[in-house]
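Module 6 notes. Inverse folding takes a fixed backbone as the condition and produces residue identities as the prediction. Think of it as a translation problem where the source language is geometry and the target language is the twenty amino acids. Below is one complete input and output pair. Work through it position by position during the lab.
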């Protein structure tokens, strides 16, 4: 993974635009999940801004193999900056992003699933920022505890504690009938 990133970054810096497109394809879903989890409905614009900043700042990346961590930091920063400056009340995000898998569900099943997703995202949105951030980075970003600690300028024990508290808060908000 990091060797692949190293190669794509090196090729991009050498002028290969297709290599940067490879990084975009590889990390677009992760970036959307992080931005949606932190900033909701503004995710698409924030991801675009993050990729633009990554393109413009790529030469400052010291270790090309660490592109993922560096880039998720950009997405996180863009999302947090947006949260600090937003004027309107937050909207409930539709979900973690990406196309819905095709299934043969009834309209009732679909409505129930959509309601469940809405409840989960509303519960996430109601969490304190520090809790929401670690949940999103861990479960949608699939980052390790060490990477989350590095991204949030924290320690692994602090990340573990926040995740535990965030999960407990979600259980309290969602009740026993939801995962």
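Target side of the pair, the amino acids:
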């Amino acid at each position: 993974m990091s060797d692949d990133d190293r190669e794509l970054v090196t090729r991009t810096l050498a002028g290969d635009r297709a290599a940067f497109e490879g990084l975009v394809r590889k990390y677009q879903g992760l970036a959307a999940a992080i931005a949606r989890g932190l900033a909701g409905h503004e995710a698409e614009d924030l991801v675009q801004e993050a990729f633009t900043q990554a393109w413009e700042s790529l030469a400052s990346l010291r270790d090309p193999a660490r592109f993922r961590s560096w880039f998720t930091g950009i997405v996180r920063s863009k999302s947090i900056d947006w949260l600090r400056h937003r004027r309107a009340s937050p909207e409930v995000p539709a979900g973690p992003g990406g196309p819905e898998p095709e299934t043969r569900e009834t309209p009732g099943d679909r409505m129930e699933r959509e309601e469940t997703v809405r409840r989960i995202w509303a519960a996430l949105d109601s969490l304190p920022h520090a809790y929401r951030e670690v949940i999103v980075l861990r479960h949608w970003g699939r980052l390790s505890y060490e990477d989350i600690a590095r991204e949030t300028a924290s320690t692994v024990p602090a990340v573990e504690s926040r995740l535990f508290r965030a999960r407990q808060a979600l259980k309290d908000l969602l009740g026993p009938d939801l995962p």
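Reference fact for the lab report: The longest helix spans residues 17-39.
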